[in-house]
Design goal:
The structure holds 2 protein chains of 2 kinds.
Chain A (H helix, E strand, L loop, with lengths): L1 H41 L1 H12 E6 L6 E2 L5 E14 L6 H12 L3 H13 L5 E8 L1 H9 L7 E10 L3 H8 L2 E3 L2 H4 L2 H6 L5 E3 L2 H5 L1 H4 L4 E7 L5 E8 L7 E2 L4 H10 L5 E7 L5 E7 L5 H4 L4 H9 L8 H4 L9 H11 L8 E3 L6 E3 L2 E3 L8 E3 L1 H6 L3 H11 L1 H10 L22 H8 L5 H7 L10 H12 L17 H13 L25 H16 L18 E7 L6 H6 L13 E8 L6 E7 L5 H18 L1 H14 L1
Parallel strand pairs in A: 2-10
Antiparallel strand pairs in A: 1-8, 2-3, 3-4, 3-5, 6-7, 8-9, 11-12, 11-19, 13-16, 14-15, 17-18, 18-19
Chain B lengths: L1 H6 L5 H7 L2 H21 L6 H20 L4 H6 L1 H18 L1 E3 L2 E6 L4 E2 L1 H18 L3 H4 L2 H19 L4 H18 L3 H21 L2 H11 L10 H13 L10 H4 L11 H34 L3 H25 L17 H19 L7
Antiparallel strand pairs in B: 1-2, 2-3
Helix pairs in contact in B: 3-4, 3-15, 4-17, 6-7, 6-9, 7-9, 7-10, 7-16, 7-17, 9-10, 10-16, 13-15, 15-16, 15-17, 16-17
The chains are: A alpha+beta, B mainly alpha.
Chain lengths: ~650, ~375
């Protein structure tokens, strides 16, 4: 019985203990349930994010750059299909062997190989190596033939910047390349910085970066724990940058560039009312397409060491003495200020009897002299003696007021080109501030023929000429098409203004004042007309300096002014020798300049031509202008049609 | 009449079939089926190596479970100590001839299966202790002599297993043994004392552990200590479970495991994978299936008169609970990571074998519940 009683007791103990244990188990079960609830219900979002972070990885894709077109919507900078070879490193078993195979197929040289190995070191084992980022079609098709033999090789179709008019547009558009450290500081580049991104390095490409760059895309991939891509989850397509339309006519530009072939210099063509820059050529040039995938050392050296400086956009960054092309402005200033009577005759007696001032001698370019000259003839035949005297009477400070008003001494396109130069319009105050010296009258005298301190860019001369040719109205030069500037409205405004003559407060135009675009800049309309007429004489009348380059056809008839700017002082000895141009060192030859507007009746276009070390303006620059003017006027109709289409569509 | 009942020894086969706990078998089949799908998912939805092996083992051991269920419970009783001894001998053989894998020597090569004797020991210790306390009087149980003996019986296999080294299994063996001692009725004060002693000695124990074990324990307290090293498993496991949400990411859609962020996903972390794919609801259902399984085994214990059967069933149920708890708590970041499989679900032959063996003994208790033992 004892045994049994004990057994019952034992049984009770076991049961009791079991219940205690079961209670503990229930508690633990509840604990685990609450933990599960915690993780899966309360904190679900947090872990979901962590899980996505784990599983998804983003690859940014470079945006498509905006296209740049000319006035007739021809693409000047576009995105072309290119062929690339990528190598998926995680699929390659023996890297050296694979590269050797590839080398034989697409002809890589030692330098390429070194670059590839350098690139590979920076990559992770699952990354993709870009073996070649621009393959020719022949190599690409050859590669596709052998593709099955090369593990991990992936032929890729991509896009890259392409300039169809390569050399002809490079100074206007610029080129692209990989972002440098300085580039990355720009906001729009920093935001879009993606491997393979190309950014503007110069010209429009650089200054309009914020419009052109677009927005990067995102490819989201599911990756495994070791980072290998498993599948693409989604793809936010990159947005293309905005299209930029230029005022440039590529046909005119090409023609201008061709005229400058083998020469160093610049040609600018501008619409004298709208301020549209139709051509802006600079020579020599270079091929921007070479820069897209990194230029090789040899080509770069060739460009950099060229003494004619192809990298400089001479139209805006080349500084020259305007020489005689400055004379129309000097004459205009003297007439406006009334310091000269245009009918006053001044005698030019040639080299033997130069103009003398305080013992210094100032010669006319014409050895035997012009004889008695009045103002119109002095402009037409470009007599220096007349202008020495006129400048002396006018004074440099008065001249500088007018010179600045007509666009010299300040940037023409401002923000478009960082390399644009301001030039220099000297005055007594300027000399005191900049050089801490007082002004000498002799400096005024040579200033009168566009020599001395004065420095201008070809585009400034084109603008100055345009603003005289349009009757003395301020215009807004631009190279990016601006729909808000309408030719008809400008014409109406000027016609209306022309009716108001003899202003009572006309003298305000003799001071430095702020003038709004399309407002008048002259005191007396007759003065402008006088200058324009003199320029007509210079081109279309016998003894005019550019008489040989005239057109008799009224359609093409133009008026202009030659200029020959000295690069250095001519010594007495050299003057006596009177050397032919071929006998002078290239470096020491004069710059040849020419400014013109056409057609003479109802002028519409202003042209400036500068040929560095080209000799005389009449022999070198004027014939070039003549050829170009025909081209420009021939294209006037088609440009007008385009203008109508543009305004109607806007 | 009483004697008559106890003397009924001849069971007809039909009667045996009738007394089988079919509900328990159904639970095993259910959990087994879930485990096959889970392993299938670890392989990214391909019926290959692991799934095939798991399915073969599951079927094989399930049949073994059914066959061994008909072994008389008295046979188990008689051979209880032998079973224990057999386990110890196997552990000793492992010590000398075991296969070394990933730094520990746990397995014996049996050609068709790499047997892990420590897994068998988990069952052997329950059988052994059940017999040990079967006859013992309440008074004797409290004596020091009978207190010391079972402790030695626990320490021997635990020492052998720890030296493999395999802390997880050693803890489970010790825990299973302790459960029976508890059920037998040892004074609560001993448990209190030993718990206190354990806490006091914990720093010493930790200092004696292998470096990787130490780092696991330190990592448990602060998983962010080394997120890519020791803390990686638990952080990734929590991310997987947490991101599963209420209903989970769906079958074969668990990104954490599919993309190989989860380590050991077909063995110790199988619950993580299941939980990621089937969410809170799925996890609770699986845990309830285990709870039901444990309940059915306890129920068998209540149907038995013999202390051996009772102690075995209650003990095995507690051990089973312990296995599930340690594994689930571990993957949920509630316990340090000690390698311990989830019963039936985890891939691994020895673990499956020992669970099926344990279940067959429990089933034998059910079938022969009227049989007199010794």
């Amino acid at each position: 019985m004892l045994n049994r009683g004990s057994n019952i007791e034992k049984s009770r103990v076991i049961t009791r203990r079991l219940f205690i244990l079961a209670a503990a188990k229930l508690c633990i079960f509840a604990g685990i349930t609450s933990r599960l609830y915690n993780l899966q219900i309360s904190d679900r979002e947090k872990y979901e994010i962590l899980s996505d972070k784990n599983r998804l990885r983003e690859w940014k894709t470079p945006p498509q750059r905006g296209i740049i077109v000319d006035y007739f919507n021809k693409a000047l900078a576009k995105n072309d299909r290119i062929f690339q070879l990528h190598l998926a490193l995680d699929e390659v078993k023996d890297f050296n062997k694979t590269i050797f195979k590839i080398k034989n197929i697409i002809d890589l040289n030692d330098f390429d190989l070194r670059t590839i190995y350098k690139k590979k070191e920076k990559l992770k084992s699952w990354d993709t190596l870009v073996v070649s980022d621009n393959l020719s079609w022949e190599k690409f098709s050859k590669l596709n033939l052998y593709l099955h033999e090369i593990e991990g090789a992936k032929p890729v179709l991509s896009t890259s910047r392409y300039y169809p008019y390569s050399n002809d547009m490079v100074h206007i558009i610029g080129y692209v390349g990989d972002a440098s450290l300085a580039d990355i500081e720009k906001k729009e580049i920093k935001e879009n910085l993606v491997p393979g991104l190309k950014v503007g390095k110069s010209g429009i490409e650089s200054s309009q970066e914020n419009l052109l760059i677009g927005k990067y895309g995102i490819k989201r991939y599911e990756v495994n724990a070791s980072g290998k891509r498993i599948s693409q989850v989604n793809y936010i397509k990159e947005t293309q940058g905005k299209q930029i339309k230029l005022t440039v006519d590529i046909e005119a530009q090409k023609f201008a560039q061709k005229l400058l072939n083998d020469k160093a210099g610049s040609i600018c063509v501008m619409d004298i009312y709208t301020g549209e820059i139709i051509a802006m050529a600079s020579s020599p040039t270079y091929d921007p397409n070479k820069f897209t995938h990194g230029i090789n050392k040899k080509d770069w050296k060739k460009i950099k060491n060229n003494p004619l400086k192809p990298l400089i956009n001479k139209s805006i960054a080349g500084l020259y003495s305007p020489g005689s092309t400055f004379k129309p402005l000097v004459a205009l200033a003297a007439l406006e200020f009334g310091t000269i009577n245009p009918e006053k005759p001044i005698l030019c007696r040639g080299h033997k009897h130069p103009y003398e001032l305080y013992g210094a001698k100032y010669h006319c370019w014409k050895k035997n002299g012009h004889g008695y000259m009045r103002l119109r003839n002095a402009i037409k035949q470009s007599c220096d003696i007349y202008f020495y005297e006129m400048a002396r009477l006018l004074g440099v400070d008065r001249l500088s007021v007018i010179a600045k008003r007509y666009g010299l001494g300040s940037k023409v396109l401002n923000d478009i080109y960082i390399e644009e130069k301001k030039g220099l319009v000297p005055s007594t105050i300027w000399k005191k501030n900049a050089l801490e010296q007082s002004w000498y009258l002799g400096e005024t005298v040579i200033n009168g023929i566009g020599q001395g301190y004065i420095q201008v860019t070809p585009l400034q001369m084109c603008l100055m000429n345009a603003q005289i040719a349009n009757g003395g109205y301020k215009i807004k030069p631009h190279i990016i098409n601006d729909q808000s500037i309408k030719f008809n409205e400008i014409q109406e405004k000027i016609q209306k203004d022309l009716k108001i003559q003899n202003l009572s407060n006309g003298n305000k135009f003799l001071k430095e004042i702020e003038i709004q675009p399309f407002d008048r800049m002259y005191k007396n309309n007759a003065n402008i007309k006088f200058v324009l007429d003199a320029m007509f004489g210079s081109t279309n009348e016998l003894y005019g300096t550019s008489f040989n380059s005239r057109y008799n056809d009224l359609k093409y008839q133009f008026a202009g002014k030659t200029g020959t700017s000295q690069v250095r002082r001519i010594t007495e000895k050299e003057r006596e020798l009177d050397l032919d141009i071929s006998q002078i060192d290239y470096k020491n030859r004069d710059h040849a300049l020419y400014i013109a507007f056409a057609p003479y009746k109802n002028p519409r276009y202003s042209i400036s031509v500068i040929i560095e070390h080209g000799g005389s303006g009449s022999k070198t620059a004027a014939p070039i202008a003549k050829k170009l003017i025909k081209k420009i006027i021939d294209r006037h109709e088609i440009r007008n049609q385009m203008r109508n289409i543009n305004t109607n569509s806007a | 009449m009483l004697t008559e009942r106890f003397q009924v020894t001849g069971y007809s086969f039909f009667e045996k079939l009738k007394s089988i706990d079919y509900f328990l078998i159904l639970l095993v089949i259910l959990i087994g089926a879930i485990s096959v799908f889970a392993i299938y998912s670890t392989e990214g939805g391909k019926f290959s190596y692991y799934t095939k092996n798991h399915l073969i083992r599951l079927s094989l051991f399930f049949v073994l479970f059914l066959v061994l269920s008909f072994v008389k419970i008295s046979t188990w009783y008689r051979n209880a100590y032998l079973f224990y001894l057999f386990g110890i001998v196997l552990l000793l053989i492992v010590l000398f001839f075991g296969i070394t894998a990933s730094g520990s020597k746990r397995w014996l090569d049996l050609y068709f299966l790499n047997l892990q004797p420590s897994e068998l020991m988990k069952i052997a210790i329950i059988v052994c202790f059940s017999r040990y306390y079967h006859r013992m009087q309440n008074i004797d149980i409290q004596s020091y002599k009978f207190l010391l003996q079972p402790i030695i019986l626990i320490i021997i296999p635990c020492y052998l297993v720890i030296s493999q080294p395999d802390l997880g299994t050693a803890i489970l063996i010790a825990g299973s043994g302790a459960a029976i001692i508890w059920l037998a009725g040892i004074n609560i004060k001993y448990f209190v004392y030993s718990s206190l002693m354990l806490i006091v000695s914990l720093p010493f124990v930790i200092s004696m552990l292998e470096p990787y074990q130490k780092s696991r324990i330190l990592t448990f307290f602060n998983p962010d200590r080394d997120p890519l090293g020791a803390g990686y498993q638990i952080i990734q496991s929590k991310i997987a479970i947490g991101s599963g949400g209420l209903l989970g990411k769906g079958f074969l859609k668990g990104t954490q495991s599919y993309l190989e962020f989860l380590p050991e996903k077909h063995t110790d972390f199988i619950f993580t994978l299941f939980s990621e794919e089937f969410g809170f609801v799925g996890s609770i259902v699986l845990l309830l299936l285990y709870a039901l399984l444990i309940y059915r085994i306890i129920r068998i214990g209540f149907l038995n008169r013999s202390f051996f059967s009772r102690l075995y069933c209650f003990g095995f149920a507690s051990a089973l609970f312990l296995y599930v708890f340690v594994n689930v708590a571990m993957v949920l970041g509630l316990l340090p990571i000690v390698g311990s499989p989830l019963p039936i679900m985890s891939y691994g032959g020895s673990s499956m074998l020992s669970i099926m063996l344990g279940l067959s003994i429990a089933m034998s208790c059910k079938i022969y519940n009227q049989e007199q033992i010794a």
